[in-house]
Amino acid sequence: MPANETKPFVRTADTKGLGQRYKLGSAFANAGRGLAEAVRGERNLRIDAGFAVVAIALGFALRIDTASWLAVIVCIGMMFALETLNTAIEAVVDLASPGYHELARKAKDCAAGAALAGAIASLVVGIIVFAPRLLALFIS
Ligand SMILES: Nc1ncnc2c1ncn2[C@@H]1O[C@H](COP(=O)(O)OP(=O)(O)OP(=O)(O)O)[C@@H](O)[C@H]1O
């Protein structure tokens, strides 16, 4: 369906305040659709997914401890959350400012910066968790 075609809202700002029930299942379905759309549309998210698969496989192969698993899982969740938020901000900016605007540039650059900060932290965690174990494997 083209983006500009009218589609009934699941919930509008008007109906929100009326105390109408919004099924938990619908909320999860909408959130899942958003995540799936972000993965489909964002190259960075697909790269993150690739790193996540490698990290999980390495975690099992190298039998990392519980604390390391927690760090890896938090990093994976953080990257998916940040990239999905980045996608959301890009969509809202494109809607609000299809033409060039300094504030639009700032919003998109900051959203991308947040994802970059998360990626750098995840890389450092990955090095701390996996590098010593991989080195020990190759040296022994
Ligand atoms: N409306 C706009 N006004 C000003 N600058 C913009 C605008 N849209 C995009 N830009 C600039 O172009 C850059 C890339 O924007 P684009 O929408 O293509 O994001 P993207 O390449 O999909 O980003 P990412 O790789 O983070 O997903 C932004 O970071 C911003 O600097």
UniProtKB/TrEMBL annotation:
Binding site for ATP: E42, E90, K108, D109
Gene Ontology BP terms: phospholipid biosynthetic process
Entry superkingdom: Bacteria
Cited PANTHER family: DIACYLGLYCEROL KINASE (PTHR34299:SF1)
Membrane-related topology note: Multi-pass membrane protein
UniProt protein name: Diacylglycerol kinase family protein
Cofactor: Mg(2+)
Assigned keywords, A-Z: ATP-binding, Cell membrane, Kinase, Lipid biosynthesis, Lipid metabolism, Magnesium, Membrane, Metal-binding, Nucleotide-binding, Phospholipid biosynthesis, Phospholipid metabolism, Transferase, Transmembrane, Transmembrane helix
Primary localization: membrane
GO molecular function: ATP binding; kinase activity; metal ion binding
Active site residues of this protein: E83
Listed transmembrane segments: 68-89, 110-131
Similarity comment: family membership: Belongs to the bacterial diacylglycerol kinase family.
Protein source organism: Senegalimassilia faecalis
Binding-site list for a divalent metal cation: E42, E90
Keyword Cell membrane included in the entry's annotation: yes
GO cellular component: plasma membrane
One of the Pfam families matching this protein, by short name: DAGK_prokar
Keyword Magnesium on entry: yes
Protein residues bound to substrate: E83
Subcellular location: Cell membrane
CC cofactor note: Mn(2+), Zn(2+), Cd(2+) and Co(2+) support activity to lesser extents.
